[in-house]
Amino acid sequence: MISNPAYYTPAHEDFRQMLRRFVASEITPFVNEWDEAASFPRELYQKAAAIGLLGLGFPEPYGGSPDVDAFHHLIASEELSRAGSGGVIASLLSHSIGAPPLMYGGSEELKQRILPDVIAGRNISALAITEPSGGSDVAALKTTAVLDGDTYVVNGEKTFITSGMRADYFTVAVRTNPDIKGAGGISLLLIERDRPGFSRAELKKMGWWASDTAQLHFDNCRVPAANLIGAEGQGFRIIMRNFNTERFSMAAGAYGFASVCYEDALAWSRDRHTFGQRLLDHQVVRHKLVEMATQISAVRALLEDTAYRMGQPEQQGSELVAQICMLKNIATRTMQFCADTAVQTLGGMGFMRGTRVERIYREVKVNMIGGGAEEIMKDLIARQLGY
Question: Read out DSSP for 309-363?
Fold first, then answer.
């Protein structure tokens, strides 16, 4: 796709080319090996930090690159998707959902202690909200943190936590006042991985094999009160602020994966011959490719419009939240369609492990569920539009 000069500056394009080179040299050649190993080298974090990827949007005093906009995040998601491995992206960028709450609400001491090493790729940050009893219904979470002197005593469980096995720091949603039901009783705590009473169990998944995912257990885990992020009872507001960027990035990634599926299906259709002619010479195949290209183009237009609106202070509000939710649904549906169509077009080769479309096909559902399932998004859209 040709970049629209109304949205992209030369700095954006320089960033794209730098990131494309990084993905081609440091990720793409190894994704099959990493997928089968269900992991990737920890050194990749520091390599990503060296090119500024981990610091996008974080303040400069902590090692970040603050002078970026939503188009930088769009480009990052799009270019990282070219490797065809959502698992690598999910864990490599788990700090992008784990660390912002600390940036928004953490004390200066906490930020100075945690953020520089995370942004430099020396330590890993993860977000822990979802529980076995529920996911998107954040206000109903059950994990408790009861203040005892100068420490909180944490009890409960979290599940489906990206980077849950390898992360050094966890931003954990807890109920600090069990007597207050709903959003008002929720707070955020920074919990280090080696705290006594904190344990993890690895989870096996349909896709995202290269990303470690875990269930977290807190059994009378004592956490210093100084690790509170923001004020007690204000955690829900910080969590909601985090969701807009997470959902936008997931939509951008889904767009990137859909584009990969289209590229591979088109290349295969040009090279593969059946009944004496190329696949591309069959009308039914051309129509499938046209439908892929049409849906991808529509998603890109909405992505770029949303990225523009995210940079306009006067456009922040319920309508933008609704548009981001719409974008996530449309982008992930397009990814689903393109992954299915690409596998069908490649035939037997599309079913073979090691092809980009096979891996993306396995990863469709986590994109449709993570960050808020389609049904949750529709209900949120209705509320934001005043239905």
Answer: HHT-GGG-SHHHHHHHHHHHHHHHHHHHHHHHHHHHHHGGGGGSTTSHHHHHHHH
How many Å separate Cα 229 from the centre of its chain?
21
All structural domains of the chain: 10-119 (1.10.540.10), 125-233 (2.40.110.10), 236-384 (1.20.140.10)
DSSP string, 115-180: HHHHHTTSS-EEEE--BTTBSS-GGG---EEEEETTEEEEEEEEEEEETTTT-SEEEEEEES-TTS
Q: For the chain, give the percent of residues with pLDDT over 90.
A: 84
In angstroms, the first-to-last Cα distance of the chain is: 36
List, for residues 26-85, the tens digit of each pLDDT value. 999 999 999 999 999 999 999 999 999 999 999 999 999 888 999 999 999 999 999 999
Tokens of 387: 């239905």
- pLDDT, tens digit, 9 for 90 and up, residues 129-162: 999 987 667 778 899 999 999 999 999 999 999 9
- The per-residue b/e assignment along 21-30, b for 16 or more CB within 10 angstroms, e otherwise, is ebbeebbbeb
Q: Mind telling me the catalytic residues?
A: 246
